[in-house]
Design a protein that fits this description.
heterodimer; A: alpha+beta; two-stranded antiparallel sheet; B: about 375 residues; 6-stranded mixed β-barrel; rod-shaped
Chain lengths: ~450, ~375
């Protein structure tokens, strides 16, 4: 009997069911879409914030003091302490290795040479990775380098290939200011004498690209790290490493000195992706290194990130509240208009409990159905919006679009709201005398 | 029938007689108005709020002397400040390479601590020097490692010694870590060097920064005025994308709430098939019916907008207070849009079911479904 009532209710009152279903469907769609956007916004904005460059720098602990004004080294130091490039693969093994999105080692060298047209070149060169595959043997490799940490660098030509570096030649990229001052064009060759090292044979630098960075880099030559090491005569050496990592905005706990914490607290501190914790792990992994967060980038990014994702969460909350009210109103209407039916059932001897059960089951079925459809629709909308706005549409897989965690959350919310919304109306209808309801022309 | 029922009395009774139904319709209208108000208010204020957050990145314009000169002329800072407006923050820096007591060369910078503090909020400083203290110094955390005594810092520049007392360490993770900062007046008296860089923070987006830069170039010829490209472009990209995201969210939420409110209201109009049939049987015309339903819906919409505007403004105020720690004031300018939206919903809700109702025969309906 119960199931027949249920079936008939859905079969005969199709329009009513559809109207209530639409309200639930749209509510869950909006809520799913907002939640899906809010949960991914952090990573997306963090990717956008990559234009500000690295948020962690690593340099040798025993380093000399830099004498730099306006990005120009006033007293370029010769030698000095350095880190080992071969140690950098250890970054792939630290606790938060997967949060490290970019690694860019630097080795400054003095470049003294002549262009193809005979003009003398005396400038700073920086040895960099351009598309280096960083791996510690296990897991996937991180393909990284300076261009990925400087998305605003504009390149005319192509980045040098590390593999093209030999003992006598390498591909390089020239800064635009330097190139126009010295008349360097794509495909030109600069002949350079190594400053030291075993081989005194001149090295030919082929210009494979011209880069515009908008800062002091424009007056430099960028060359593959291995070529810079040959030029400087310091194999495996790196002066400074820029690291870009996904971090959690700093809070009071993040600023604590890990060594002053209790063992348990320290473990919690260690296992949170704060810039400070990641820097700490880098110091542990690379011997003789000092790692610092770049506060200008890290602090400000954290600030912006917190605000934008906070805004999204609050708006999601507001959307949830509004959807809940809208759905409740729809459910209340749906029950109110069936008072007559309730009165009839009561007068035919149905118990209050079984009537309530019938209405709740109907509402629950509606919420389940509309909730699932709304979940799919909302996820689709969120993915579409994310792809449109942040341009990450190319590699969208099913798992990216449908966040499995959201499904139970959204359906549970829909059920809760639907039950809460129909309860007052059901209760009201049940407390009224059946005869009174039936007499009133409802 | 001697006394004809007037439209207003039908309306009044219809609204008051079934309070529960009127209430749920009113709640629905209030929600759609409140959501629209809150989102539009937040949206209107979003760019300004976001740009404000980006101020924490510090200077977005750098002013340096032209090719031939080494330092800026005195009084330039005031002219830059006047030209850039009172909201802009400017700080000047002078640099020299001095030697510490341990014989290490170190960059010493002279500046105005109060301005730097406002400009570079990311500097982590143990304790800022008092403005009147002429021999106070901030020691970069790396520079501090090369100094014997942080309380009496002995520096030498071109044979002229100077003793400063460090008030604390400075941590930034950038070039500042290897420098020593001191008050500009004392610095100039000691080294004779004048400021060579003005760092300027112009509030607002790329357009505002560009305008300010071209104005500065015009008013201060001979100076190099350059934007910090990565800051300006990055800020613009993120603000634009957040803006687009909010736009999408506003549309999505407003639309879904509007449609689900529409569904609720239509249901409550549909429910009144019997009233409709009765009135029709008593001689009411199609037009009168329509007018009645519309009027009722508009009344509810009116009330809904009134309450919804208050609720929505309060919600947007709370959200921006919570998130940005600054208030977003209610905007009357969103009211026309909210009002139009709600009237549209009300009209649709009243008119959509009419198509269904029109096809019904009063007699059949009154007899039973």
């Amino acid at each position: 009997m119960f199931f027949r009532l249920l079936m008939e209710s859905f079969r005969r009152q199709r329009r009513r069911k559809i109207l209530a279903g639409i309200a639930i469907l749209l509510g869950t769609t909006a809520v799913t879409a907002m939640l899906a956007l809010a949960t991914t916004i952090g990573d997306r904005i963090q990717d956008e914030l990559a234009v500000y460059g690295a948020n962690i720098v690593v340099y040798p602990a025993a380093d000399q003091l830099e004498v730099k004004v306006g990005g120009v080294d006033v007293k370029p130091d010769s030698g000095g302490a350095s880190l080992k490039a071969s140690d950098l693969k250890k970054l792939r093994g630290i606790f938060w290795a997967n949060n490290i999105t970019g690694v860019s080692p630097e080795l400054p060298v003095h470049i003294l040479g002549t262009t193809g047209s005979g003009k003398p070149v005396d400038t700073t060169g920086t040895g960099l990775w351009f598309r280096h595959s960083l791996t510690n043997g296990s897991g996937t490799a991180l393909v990284t380098g300076a261009p990925s940490l400087h998305p605003l660098w504009k390149l005319n030509g192509s980045w040098p290939e590390e593999a093209a570096t030999t003992a006598t030649g390498a591909d390089v990229v020239a800064g635009s200011t330097l190139a126009s001052a010295k008349g360097i064009h794509l495909g030109d060759t600069i002949e350079v004498q190594p400053s030291s090292g075993p081989s005194r044979t001149p090295i030919k630098l082929r210009v494979s690209g011209i880069v515009t960075a908008g800062d002091a880099t424009d007056e430099q030559i960028l060359l593959p790290l291995n070529a810079a090491q040959v030029l400087a005569g310091t194999p495996d050496a790196v002066r400074r490493v820029e690291v870009s990592a996904r971090t959690k905005p700093e809070d009071a706990f993040a600023r604590k000195d890990p060594n002053s914490l209790s063992a348990k607290q320290k473990e919690i501190w260690y296992c949170r992706p704060y810039a400070n914790s990641i820097a700490y792990q880098i110091r542990e992994a690379i011997p003789g290194a000092r790692a610092e967060q770049v506060r200008r980038v890290e602090q400000s990014e954290g600030n912006v990130l917190k605000r934008i994702s906070g805004l999204m969460w609050l708006i999601s909350g507001a959307a949830m509240l509004a959807a809940a009210f809208a759905v409740s109103a729809a459910m209340a209407t749906a029950v109110l208009e069936r008072q007559g039916e309730i009165g009839l059932m009561r007068s035919l001897g149905a118990s209050k409990g079984s009537i309530a059960m019938l209405f709740y089951t109907e509402a629950g079925l509606l919420a389940l159905l509309a909730g699932v459809i709304g979940y799919v629709a909302g996820s689709g909308i969120a993915a579409w919006m994310g792809a449109r706005i942040f341009g990450t549409g190319s590699s969208l897989s099913m798992t990216d679009v449908l966040n499995p965690v959201l499904l139970p959350v959204v359906v549970a919310l829909a059920l809760a709201v639907v039950f809460a919304g129909s309860t007052p109306a059901i209760r009201r209808a049940l407390t009224m005398e059946p005869s009174a309801i039936l007499r009133a022309d409802v | 029938m001697s006394t004809r029922l007037s439209m207003t009395s039908i309306l009044r009774r219809s609204l008051l007689h079934r309070k529960a139904r009127s209430m749920s319709a009113l709640i629905a209208m209030t929600i759609s108005a409140a959501v629209a108000t809150a989102l539009l208010t937040l949206y209107a204020d979003l760019d300004a709020k976001l740009h404000h957050e980006f101020r924490s990145f510090g200077a977005n314009v750098v002013i340096t002397p032209g090719e031939s000169e080494r330092s800026l002329k005195p009084g330039i800072l005031e002219r830059v400040q006047t030209s850039a407006g009172p909201d802009a923050v400017a700080a000047e820096f002078a640099y020299a390479v001095a030697t510490t007591d341990r014989g290490t060369p170190v960059v010493v910078a002279g500046t105005d601590f109060a301005a730097v503090r406002r400009l570079n909020s990311w500097w982590q400083v143990d304790s800022w020097p008092t403005p009147t203290d002429a021999t106070a110094a901030l020691l970069g955390q790396r520079a501090a490692d090369f100094i014997a005594d942080e309380h009496t810092v002995q520096l030498t520049f071109a044979g002229r010694p100077l003793t400063l007392h460090g008030t604390g360490r400075l941590r930034t993770g950038g070039d500042e870590d290897s420098r020593i900062y001191m008050p500009l007046a004392a610095f100039s008296a000691w080294t004779g060097a004048q400021p060579s860089v003005i760092e300027l923070q112009v509030p607002g987006g790329a357009a505002q920064v560009e305008t300010t830069i071209s104005r500065l170039r015009q008013e201060l010829p001979g100076l190099k005025v350059e934007p910090v490209r990565q800051l300006v472009e990055g800020e613009n990209r993120i603000v634009d994308k957040t803006h687009a995201l909010m736009y999408g969210a506003v549309l999505l939420i407003a639309l879904t709430v509007a449609v689900s409110v529409l569904a609720t209201l239509s249901a409550s109009v549909l429910e009144r098939r019997r009233d409709f049939a009765l009135m029709k049987a008593l001689g009411g015309s199609q037009l009168q019916m329509m007018a009645l339903f519309l009027l009722e819906a508009f009344l509810l919409a009116f009330a809904g907008v009134g309450i919804g505007f208050l609720v929505g403004s309060a919600a947007s105020l709370a959200i921006s207070q919570l998130n940005f720690h600054t208030a977003t004031m209610p905007r009357l300018s969103v009211l026309p849009l909210v009002f139009t939206l709600n009237l549209l919903i009300a009209a649709l809700a009243a008119l959509l079911p009419l198509r269904v109702l029109r096809g019904l025969q009063p007699a059949a309906l009154l007899k039973g479904e």
